[in-house]
Amino acid sequence: MKKIGVLFGKERSFPNALIERINSKKIEGISAEAVRIDKVIQGDAGDYAVIIDRISQDVPFYRAFLKDAAICGTAVINNPFWWSADEKFFNNCLAVKIGVPVPKTVILPSRDLPDDTSEESFSNLSYPLDWEGIFNYVGFPAYMKPFAGGGWKNVYKLTNMEDFFQKHGETGQLVMLLQEEIIFDEYYRCYCIGGKHVRIMPYEPRNPHHLRYVSDFTPSPERLKLMEDIVLRINKYLGYDFNTVELAIRDGVPYAIDFCNPAPDADRNSVGEENFNWVVETAANYAIERAQHQEPGRDNLTWGEYIKRGAAKQPLI
Questions:
Q1: Considering the chain, what percentage of its residues have pLDDT values greater than 90?
Q2: Residue 40: which of 60, 15, 16 has the closest Cα?
């Protein structure tokens, strides 16, 4: 019997529905359950063929457990080694290199010195920074947000240079991105599962959270195809099994705004019934597929084109 485990935190609707749906299919040799951990011993991480990770971004203990499981042959969705290494600024850099439009973005050193450092620790950093060059490149209005993490935490909209310095002074030791605002005509949030299944959802981030999936955007077939191609290209190079990509349409051009969401919102109450049913069904089928192809004792992780091409010393594109 190959077991599919779901590792989650306080969310309930998606994990429970996913487990129920996998088991309802009655696939011979496949079962699903909530992951149970009573100890973690090096090189012996239990008997799960597949683990779907929904919480390790917030719990370092779980991330360590998943890496141990992966070494033992578990197919972890998403790859915990890559997830540990990934962050938003790198994603933007990669997008530029693979031809995906993204907002003009720079990364900034933290306003306050990190713990156990002093001014001498930053002898390679020019001070002051070239603020004029930075502001001329990005422009205003702009957004400032952490270079890693999500959930709309510590996100600021900035109107001018004075506004920037005031709000940057509140960010403490956070490393921030300063990013051009894309004033969009339409906006979409796109699930991508297995690097091949895409669901493009009209999304209005200016609405209250519970109404963000309520919008009347109606993209043409040509625009849908363009957005799907971008979503697939991003996830092909990043190597995520389960991710969302946010696309803002300005003058007909889809800009990738946020595409590092490996534990994306899948709650029935926020994404709506149709989207919820799609993500449950698609995730269930994909988890079963991964379990059927899982080989005990082998590396069963997904590795993106960026890593694979680097290991093979091939050009990025």
A1: 91
A2: 60
Q: Where are the beta strands (DSSP E) in the chain?
A: 2-7, 30-34, 48-53, 75-77, 105-108, 142-146, 156-158, 176-180, 186-193, 197-202, 242-250, 253-258
Ramachandran angles phi, psi of 187, nearest 5°: -145, 140
- Whole-prediction pTM: 0.94
User: Strand pairing of 30-34 and 2-7?
Assistant: parallel
Tens-place pLDDT, residues 245-271: 999 999 999 999 999 999 999 999 999
Output the pLDDT for position 180: 97
Q: How far is CA 109 from the centre of its chain?
A: 22
Q: Which CATH number fits domain 87-102+182-261: 3.30.470.20, 1.25.40.180, 3.20.20.70, 1.10.540.10?
A: 3.30.470.20
Domain(s) labelled CATH 3.30.1490.20 in the chain stretch across 104-180
- Amino acid of residue 82: W
pLDDT, position 151: 64
DSSP letter at 212? T
